[in-house]
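SAMPLE LOG
Freezer: B-3
Tube label: C17
Construct: single chain, 699 aa
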Amino acid sequence: MAPAWAHMREDDGEDAAEGRSLFHALFQDTPLPMALLGLGGRLIWANDALCALMRGDERQLRGSAAFLPQDESVEDGVSRLTSGRVPSIRFDRALEAADGSPIHGRISVTAIRDGRGHCRLLAVTITDTTAELRATEAVKDAQTRLRSLFDNAIEGMFEATPDGRYLDVNLALSRMLGYPEPAELIAAVNANGHQLYVDPERHLEIANQLSLRGNVSDFISAVRRSDGSAIWISENVRAVRDNGGKTVRLEGSVEDVTGRKRAEEQIAYGSLHDKLTNLPNRGLLLDRVAHAITKSHRRNVFQYALLFIDCDRFKVINDGLGHTVGDLLLREVARRIASCVRGSDTLSRLGGDEFAILAEDLEGTEDAVRLSDRVQKALAVPISIDGQDLYVSVSIGIAVGSPSYRDANEVLRDADVAMFEAKNQGRGRVVVFEPGMAVAAASKLRVENDLRKALERGEFRIHYQPIVNLENGSLMGFEALVRWQHPERGLVMPANFIPTAEDSGMIGAIGAWVLEESCRQVHGWKKSPQRAGIALSVNLSPAQLCECDIVNRIKDILNRTGFDPRKLKLEITESAIIQNPVAAKATLNALKSLGIQLSIDDFGTGYSSLSHLHNFPIDTIKIDRSFVSPMDDAGDHAEIVRSIIMLGANLGKTVIAEGVETEQHLHNLRAMGCLAAQGYLFSRPVSGEEAARFVANDR
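STRUCTURE (predicted):
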C-alpha cells in the first residue's frame, strides 16, 4: 500500500510534488526508526529502520497500536500535542518485536499539520535503549549483589571518610564490636571521635601508612568493644581516590584475630618460659639482664645482681625416685624461691635443677647476700612428696653488676663460676664472684675433661688403708681409697677430683670400677685360710645408692670377682640416706639380703639422726676424723667420741674411729672402749702391692 501522501492530488503543483519526494527520502532513508501514526494511534507507515528494529516488514506493522500505549499520561500528552499546547512528547515504552523478542525504546512523538494548522498525522521516532537498559539493569544488579555481599559478609566491612569516620558498616562488623545494628556502631564510634583503638596512636599510624602507600594490609590492633572488653582485629584498608588523586573515601575489611593473637602470644610465652615451672627461661632472663646492664650504664646509682642457684645432689633424688618425683620437687623448689623475691626481681629456671634470680635496684652486695640467705632458709624445711620428706640444699653464686659488663652472658657466666666455687666449698654455700674464680673454673673444666679420659686410659689406682683391732693389734681389713695417676699432675688425691666427678655424673662409673677392682685385688690376697677373714670397706656414693639397678650391679661384681659378700662393707654417708630415706632403706635391705655389711661413714658430721641407726640395717659406725683429731685437747670432742662409742655398744654396732694419728689418740680410744680404728698411726693408704705384703706379714 502506498504511503498516505501518495493519495494527494496531482494538481497540487510541482512544489508540492517535490516536497513529497523530499519528505519520502528523509523519512525512508534515515537510519533512525520512524513511523507515521493516525490520530487514533495506529501505524500507517514505517520506514526501513523501524522495520529492521521490529524484525518485520511494513505490512506486518501497519495498523499496530503498540507505539502509543493505553496509558493515561501518554493519552494526556498526545492530547496536548495535537491541540498544539506542546511541540512534542517523549516516553519510554517496552515493545515486542515480530519474533517475540523484547525491545525497549525511547519514543518521541511530534504532530504533522496541514496548511491550516490542523494535526493530520503523528510522527514517531524510536531510539533503541534495550542495550542501555540492560547495562543499567546489570549495574543495578551488580550493585545489589555487592550490597548483599557487604551486608551478609562473614568478615566486617566498612566505608569511611578520609579521616576515618564511618559512613557505612555491615552487620558482621557491628556485632564483632558488640553493637546489635550497624547504625548503633556508626553513631557510637563517630560520636567518640572514632577512637576504637586501645592505643590511640594506632589510628595515626594507619592514617600515615594510607597517605604513603594508599593501602594497608593485615594491620593488627587491639580495639574496644561496646562493653569495654578488648579484642584483636586485622584490617585491610584502601584509599579510594578521584581523578585528581584526592582521597574521597576509605574502604576496608576487618577480621577478628583474637584467637590467632592469643595463640601467637602463647607460642611466644612458651618460647620464653619454662614449661615445668612456668618461670622465665634462660632466653628471657638474658634479655632482662641485658636491660639491667643498659640501665646501669645510664644510671650510675642503679645496682643489680644475678644469683645462680643450683640444687645440691638433685641427680641423686631424680635417679632414685624417678623423674615424676623430681619434677614435683623442682616445682616446689621454684615456689619456695619465688616466695623470697620481690615483684621487681626476675626468677628464672635455666634448666635441670638450676635457677637464677635477677635482683634489681639494690643498695649493694649485702642485699644480694641477704636474698640468698632467705632462699636457703626457705629450702631448709623438708619437702614432703608422696609421704617422703626430701631435703634440698642449694649452692648460690652471685655476680654483682659492674661497668665492665657489656653482655648478659658475661654476667651469667660469672654467677655460674661463683656457684661452682660454692659447691667446691662444701655445698649449701653462698659465694660472690671474684675475678680469680674464673681461673679456678677453667681448671675445673680441664679436670672434668681429663676425668672423662681417665677411665678409658686406666689412670685410676686404688690405695688401701688398714683397719686395726685395738684389742690385739691385728688386721681386720682395709678401706679402699681411689687415687688418680694423672699423666701430667702425678698422683691426684680424691678431694681434688671427686666433687667434679659427682657434678659431672661420672662418679657412678668411677665407683663401680673401684668396687670391682678392689674386690678382685683383695680376693687374690686371701687365698690362704688364715687370711680369709680380712674385710674390705668400699665407699658407695649417693649417686650409686640411687641407681635403680645398683643391687644387681654389685651382685654381678661379686660373681665376677668371687669375693665373699659377707666380707664386703659398703660405706654410705648420712646425707645419702636422708635425701631419699624410703628408697635408701629398700636398697640397703636388698644389699643386706646378699650378706653385705653396711657402715655409716663420717658419723656425726651429717644430720646425726639416731633414727638412722634404728630404721636402717647398719652394722658399723665410723667416727669422723674431725672428732678424733682434736681429742688431745680433751673437752667437747672427747665427750662426743665417748658418746658415739657408748651408743654403738648399746645398739650392738661395731664402732671404728678414723684419723688416729698419735699414741694419745690410741690411748684415749682404748680407754673409751673403742674396738677398731684406722689412721696414720697404723699406716697411710698404700698401694695394692704394699697392702698385699701387709697381709702376708700380718700375724
